[in-house]
Amino acid sequence: MKTKEHTRQVRDTVVEKFKARFGYKKISQALNISRSTVQAIILKWKEYQTTANLPRPGRPSKLSSRTRRKLIRDAAKRPMITLDEVQRSTAEKQKPAASMKPEYQDTEDPEYEDFRAEASLQRKRRLESFAKAAEAFKQGRKEVASFYAQQGHMHGKRMSEANHRAAVQIFERVNSSLLPNNILDLHGLHVDEALDHLVQVLHDKTTAYEKGLCRPQLSVITGRGNHSQGGVARIRPAVINYLTNANYRFTEPKPGLVLVSLK
Q: Which residue ranges are recorded for the region named Disordered (predicted)?
């Protein structure tokens, strides 16, 4: 069933509100449309600088993004893979399966979607570039494949840079009023980002405690994994593993809250 398409006026209004620094949530509420639709309109506008309907390059792809990634990996590992093997692999991957979340994310909390929008766009372009590289390689057009592979790496680098900027913004927004009270909240961060901030804050707070400038305990909010892929916590076990290996004394009075001794 074809989904309802919003008018050009609605799409223009979404962009105008975004330019006026409205967040996705506020735009969604004001126009009574879903957050995912708001995000799609804004990402399209960022990429093409228009809200008009663009001509389709051809019939809709029958392959999911997950299947395309599988084909790319197969082509990279086995350059001599046959067409029959590719078709069998594709058929197997196209069988109905449980919904898959993007593997690059450690959190899908909608509260932080605005900060990750640019990274999501670069990730999409990276996948598209590598898919084109795999297709060109399969056709024997090595120069074209090399070009798209380079494009994929470029978008991958931009994605990493965008995620870094997002992590800084999220950390400052969440913790600006908490850190003075020796509270560190790691919500909205990917695992590696969370650990980087944890290490830095522990160092800073330990130094402050030794100078008598703060109390001897840091409260670390890791969350319980409610917004992680499959509802499985990722930041919490990573934090506990780091604290254990670094010989910090800590307790966990309840899931998602770790109290670390700075003594």
A: 84-112
